[in-house]
Amino acid sequence: MQGGAAHIIDADRVGSVKQQVSELFKVSLGTVVPDQSDIEPLIAMCNNAKFGDYQCNNAMNLWSMIKGKSTQFKNPRSIGEAIAGNLPPSEMIESSGVAGAGFVNIFLSKDWIAKSIQKMLLNGIGVWAPILPVKRAVVDFSSPNIAKEMHVGHLRSTIIGDTLSRMLEFSKVEVLRRNHVGDWGTQFGMLIEYLFKEFPDWEDVGDQAIGDLQEFYRAAKRKFDEDPSFKERAQQAVVRLQGGEAQYRSAWTKICDISRKEFDQVYQRLGVHLEEKGESFYNPYIPRVLEELNNKGLIVESEGARVIFIEGQPIPFIVVKSDGGFNYASTDLSALWFRLNEEKADWIIYVTDVGQSQHFQMLFSAAKRAGWLPPNGKIGEWTDEELEKTAEAVGYGAVKYADLKNNRLTNYTFSFDQMLNDKGNTAVYLLYAHARICSIIRKSGKDIEQLKQTGTIVLGHADEQVLGLHLIRFAEIVEEACTNLNPNILCEYLYNLSEIYTRFYTNCQVVGSPEEPSRLLLCEATATVMRKCFHLLGIVPVYKI
Ligand code: ARG
Description:
Elements: H1 2-12, H2 17-32, E1 43-45, E2 54-56, H3 59-66, H4 76-85, E3 93-99, E4 103-108, H5 110-123, E5 136-140, H6 152-170, E6 174-179, H7 187-198, H8 202-205, H9 207-210, H10 213-226, H11 228-242, H12 246-270, E7 275-276, H13 279-282, H14 286-295, E8 299-302, E9 305-308, E10 317-320, H15 328-341, E11 347-350, H16 357-369, H17 384-406, H18 416-421, H19 426-444, H20 448-454, H21 462-472, H22 474-483, H23 488-507, H24 516-536
Parallel strand pairs: 5-6, 5-11, 6-7
Antiparallel strand pairs: 1-2, 2-4, 3-4, 8-9, 9-10
Helix pairs in contact: 2-4, 3-4, 5-21, 5-24, 6-17, 7-10, 7-11, 7-12, 10-11, 11-12, 15-16, 17-19, 19-24, 21-23, 21-24, 22-23, 23-24
């Protein structure tokens, strides 16, 4: 039965409006240029709402491909006209037209938009999940280092990684949320040795021996730098730990446990959940992964170390240090191998600070050379600035919200004017905007659940139409945010939704008007979409102001 239910849900998933429009144009293009069977429709929102809602931009490209070869078309515009003329009949489209050099503009049917919103209200926002070309994704995020402080870079990664995961999960992608904690570095030699030396009874006194882990780390580091014999023992301790000696292993476990408790507090506060698969997890895989790379002739000897040379990089990718030990690079190679071969991930997303970009460039180049990744596979990278902007946009919502909750919620005076001007305060602004909608619905005294069953949405007023169109774009926004790995797009959509709603509410009387049932449903749809945006951004909505 479960299978049946899942089937129904899947059949209900039609993809984003943009995808649906694209399907229609694909059919048309197949008729217009049958020999260009794999041509992808180029669909975009119209810049100017006067001309249409969506446009198809294939004509110019097609013209440059068939120019001189075709007698059928005399210019790009005639191709555009053929594309428009061959659109299959669909209740989605109200009208189409051709502009300039063959741009095909379409207006969506207001009725169809209204119905689609009603369907969403009845069946839940899940029907507006986009369909992504990916089944399973690994998201490697947060990933702090044991016994070291979780710094702002890790926090940023935690917030962005969580939002990316939520968006993918909403799109029915199976997401493996991976916390790639640094639990296997050489620092453990020094920590363990320090523990043994300073706290011979560490097994009995437990956590208290270590106390503040960061302080403990600093003290161990001081000793390491000052005392050559300690340093030597620390280095041996790493070898003994990695060799699996019981006492070292159990000291290591203890240290990791303390760190984990601290990290978990942060995750709990932010409402983020992750599965830890730290560096140590991949350690057993390293030898065979390196063997594979070695057999492929990628690994060479250089100054006592084993390295992979990468074209265009000034330094080689060191995979075995000169003392024979493995490192961050060999671990990441094995993790990548594991994610591709064992976890069979279609997408692997690393959310880390830009300081590591050289490491990752070398990692991915090595993987391409090994034939693990397609040679022209897409590898996106963000600048530090983009990261900053996104984390801020996404993160402060949650942080501010916490702040808001601790202060006196009721003392806030609500004013649409202030909200519209005060863009800096957006998370707060948005939370209130949502709560305001909820209160409008409440105060109407109508049973909204019943209205969903019996009411009909009619998009009569221009501001209703703008709101309707914006609402049904939700799926394509999530789709875009996922494919560009950029939650900012969702933030922007949410701000705009709030503004568009305000315009609607200012110009269209809701309660007490003849259109009240339809307009209340539009309010409810707006609140529903806003809530989903909050959820995807990791923000907890408020219902009352
Ligand atoms: N632990 C690393 C750091 O704090 C981040 C790990 C990122 N993920 C990875 N697979 N290398 O810098």
